[in-house]
Task: inverse folding
């Protein structure tokens, strides 16, 4: 049985006050937590996809970003849908999140309206920048991958495969994903675009 809050080495650990936000008393180990989060994420994705009539710009609001996170993790964590207040080993300073997320969304709306990049690249750039901000205590990767999938669908494309496996598991797939993110950090979006469609 693994520790309830044990994370892979490259994952972001929760602060003690964030761990206290666990809503389900039946969750006693990591497998329980993974199952509860996965079920909630499936419900959150279904909620988002029921909103089919939306235009791309309807997704690109701070309210939608927060609400999607809450729909994805709100049955498991009381802080779901609220920006983190603690510092992390990844992401910007917590106090900058409320200004950086709207600035990113403004940029992405501009890219969509002006066709600055091809649709896949717009969605992947949204993904990369939102990962870099890391706005929530946990669930950022899963949240931003769904945001990118929803955006590309609204732009007329197919959802991304994101390597075709589970990125939660430590291994080759996760290592490729992290390497692609690091390349994008260094202004080379190509590996992340390729990974998203692999």
Result:
């Amino acid at each position: 049985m693994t520790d309830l809050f044990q994370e892979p080495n490259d994952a972001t650990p929760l602060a003690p006050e964030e761990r206290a936000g666990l809503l389900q008393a039946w969750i006693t180990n990591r497998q329980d937590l993974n199952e509860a989060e996965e079920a909630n994420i499936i419900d959150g994705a279904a909620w988002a996809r029921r909103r089919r009539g939306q235009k791309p710009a309807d997704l690109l609001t701070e309210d939608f970003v927060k609400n999607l996170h809450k729909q994805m993790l709100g049955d498991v964590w009381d802080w779901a849908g609220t920006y983190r207040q603690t510092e992390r080993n990844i992401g910007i300073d917590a106090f900058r999140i409320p200004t950086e997320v709207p600035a990113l969304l403004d940029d992405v709306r501009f890219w969509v309206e002006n066709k600055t990049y091809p649709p896949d690249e717009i969605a992947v750039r949204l993904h990369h920048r939102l990962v870099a901000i890391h706005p929530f205590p946990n669930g950022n990767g899963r949240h931003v991958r769904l945001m990118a999938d929803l955006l590309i669908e609204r732009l007329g494309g197919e959802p991304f495969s994101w390597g075709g496996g589970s990125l939660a598991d430590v291994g080759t797939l996760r290592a490729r994903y992290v390497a692609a993110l690091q390349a994008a950090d260094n202004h080379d979006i190509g590996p992340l675009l390729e990974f998203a469609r692999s």
Summary: The chain is about 55% helix and 0% strand.
